[in-house]
Write a structure and sequence with these properties.
There is one protein chain. The chain has a 7-stranded mixed beta sheet with strand order 1-7-6-5-4-2-3, sandwiched between helices. It has a 5-stranded mixed beta sheet with strand order 8-9-12-11-10. It is α/β, with parallel strands linked by helices. α4 runs parallel beside α11 and α13 crosses α15. It contains 15 helices and 12 strands. β2, α6 and β3 form a beta-alpha-beta unit. The protein folds into 2 domains: 249 residues, 3-Layer(aba) Sandwich (Aspartate Aminotransferase, domain 2), CATH 3.40.640; 136 residues, Alpha-Beta Complex (Aspartate Aminotransferase, domain 1), CATH 3.90.1150.10. The mean pLDDT is 96. 38% of the residues lie in helices and 14% in strands. The structure holds pyridoxal-5'-phosphate. Pyridoxal-5'-phosphate binds next to α5 and α6.
């Protein structure tokens, strides 16, 4: 391919470069768990290379070492992230765990910026994997980074309140410590963290990349050396993405830009209307006047994204009532699907976060998070407005 291409074109063609030579139009699904080996010495060399995280030789040898269908999805994600490589896993948490293992963070120190996804918070706060963790803020990273810091972890936009963090400033403050960005909310359509100096861009591919609520998966974009370390961990621990899941994910990529653009436009409209609603006390979305204090939209993140949070007057009871009253909008955790989902962070996604830490990040009992889908925003508003009225008047 020559010349720069629009992201809309890139999503359609990413990871499909070998198809014409194969004589096929759609990526084939290779479900082999093992492969015929005609030459033992060649197979021994291939196995040796793959077990150490290297590239496949003549044969993948065994399904835990390499899979061509998964590799095609990985090529696609790497291209969209502007990264040399990417490595896919069976879930976002498996992907994060692999980065912690591959980076030495499990025997060293991690500096993490709250708020992050509840599962990530729990994995670090529980010290289940052995990492020593300092919870920090962007302005304190410089002092909280130690010589043993294996990585600095950040989410931007953050889950669930959509705070934006200046990645170039963070990378500078982190010094020698590499920065891991959870890019799940932004997607490579809106933000490519490696271009701003991050070492890893991690996705819960369960969300926007899959986009249809039918695949659990994770993927990490990074340089070649870090990718080899991640593949080595994946071979050793077996946290694989299946070929069928990879094929579904790859099938979703051509519409990623269209989905994100449509959902983001809907989210922006709903954020505006929610901010005027008498039953709503505040709205968090990067499109709001106070949503981007450092001016990162356009510079780091191409648009505000499709997730927003708001607080319902009346606390937990009112929030539960709104969640229970929507008809079109599904009360459910997760995000990034074609349909709109509403959930209660304090009761669900961030339930496992220490109470004090959650309160400090600004999540209140009345906070709801909305992942806006690609439905007509007018229909979403009618549903949301009716649910807010019912909750408001129901007391
Ligand atoms: C969902 C999510 C994860 C975890 O991913 P799984 O695919 O559920 O394992 C990590 N980070 C963020 C921001 C998420 O939204």
């Amino acid at each position: 391919m020559t010349g720069p291409r629009s992201i809309r074109t890139a999503v359609v063609h990413a990871g499909r470069g070998d198809l014409r030579a194969l004589g096929v139009h759609a990526p084939p699904i290779d479900r082999s768990t093992t492969y015929p080996l005609d030459d033992l010495d060649q197979a021994t060399a291939d196995l040796e290379t793959l077990a150490h995280g290297g590239e496949p030789g003549a044969s993948p040898v065994y399904g835990r070492l390499h899979n061509p269908t998964v590799a095609r999805f990985e090529r696609a994600v790497a291209d969209l992230e502007g990264a040399p490589e990417s490595v896919a896993f069976g879930s976002g948490m498996a992907a994060l765990t692999a980065v912690l293992l591959a980076s030495g963070a499990t025997t060293g120190h991690v500096a993490a910026i709250r708020p992050v996804y509840g599962g990530t918070d729990h994995l670090l706060a529980s010290e289940l994997l052995g990492s020593r963790v300092t919870w920090t803020t962007p302005d304190k990273v410089e002092v909280d980074v130690e010589p043993e810091t294996a990585l600095v972890l950040v989410e931007t936009p953050s889950n669930p309140l959509l705070d934006l963090v200046d990645l170039e400033a963070l990378v500078a403050a982190a010094g020698d410590a590499p920065v891991l960005v959870d890019n799940t909310f932004a997607t490579p359509i809106l933000q490519q963290p490696l271009r701003h100096g991050a070492a890893w861009s991690v996705h819960s591919a369960t969300k926007f990349l899959g986009g249809h609520g039918d695949v659990v998966a994770g993927v990490v974009a990074c340089d070649a050396e870090r990718a080899a370390a991640l593949r080595r961990v994946r071979v050793a621990t077996g946290a694989l993405l299946t070929p069928d899941a990879a094929a579904l994910l790859h099938r979703s990529l051509p519409t990623l830009a269209l989905r994100v653009e449509a959902a983001q436009a809907g989210a922006t409209e709903l954020a505006t209307r929610l901010a005027r609603h008498p039953a709503v006390t505040w709205v968090r979305h990067p499109s709001r006047p106070d949503g981007d204090p450092d001016g990162l939209l356009g510079r780091q993140q191409a648009g505000p994204g499709a997730v927003l949070a708001f607080e319902v007057a009346g606390g937990h009871r009112a929030a539960a009532a709104v969640m229970g009253a929507t008809q079109l909008i599904t009360p459910a955790v997760s995000l990034g699907a074609t349909d709109t989902l509403i959930q209660h962070p304090a009761g669900l996604t961030h339930r496992v976060v220490e109470e004090q830490a959650l309160a400090e990040t600004g999540v209140t009992p009345g906070t709801l998070r909305l992942s806006v889908g690609i439905e007509d925003p007018e229909d979403l508003w009618a549903d949301l407005d009716a649910a807010l009225r019912a909750a408001h008047h129901g007391g």
